[in-house]
Amino acid sequence: MNLKYLILCCVAALLVLPAVAQDSEGADTYKAKCLMCHGPDGTAQTPAGKVFKAASFRDPVVVKTPDDELASIVKKGKNKMPVFGSMLSDDQIKSVIAYIHTLQKD
Fold first, then answer.
1. Measuring CA to CA, how many Å separate 27 from each of 3, 10, 67?
2. Dihedral, CA of residue 54, residue 101, residue 89 and residue 22, to nearest 10
3. Which of 74, 81, 79, 80 shows the shortest CA–CA distance to 29?
């Protein structure tokens, strides 16, 4: 095997692994804290999501909401959404928002 190719593959793997770990953490946090209301696809079509009128992550208003505003909503709550600022670290919130963005894509 060509040494340059091997080195290039190793560097690429090192660059991709943190992103994969962050996606995994975001998915895990989402499943633990968000899934009950927002559902597996983020459309909030769960019994709890309907009762609490949870936002669909595919709603154009939500899609256009800046990440810092989404983070503030997660930390402080909004309407019937509970406060998660004391339960989740900033890194966990950042990861879950990144995961939410994956649900916004069709």
1. 36, 26, 17
2. 140
3. 74
CB distance 90 to 26 below 8 Å: no
CB 64 within 8 A of CB 73: no
What dihedral do alpha carbons 38, 39, 40, 43 form, nearest 10°? -70
User: What angle in degrees, to the nearest 10, is found between the helix axes of 3-33 and 90-103?
Assistant: 90
Q: Which two tokens stand for residue 11?
A: 């560097």
> Using one digit for the tens of pLDDT, what is the confidence trace for 50-79?
999 999 999 999 999 999 999 999 999 999
Cα–Cα distance for residue pair 86/65, rounded to 1 Å: 22
C-alpha neighbours within 13 Å on the C-beta side of residue 33: 25
Q: Write down the pLDDT at residue 19.
A: 45
pTM: 0.76
Tokens, residue 95: 């990861």
Q: Are 25 and 66 in contact (CB under 8 A)?
A: no
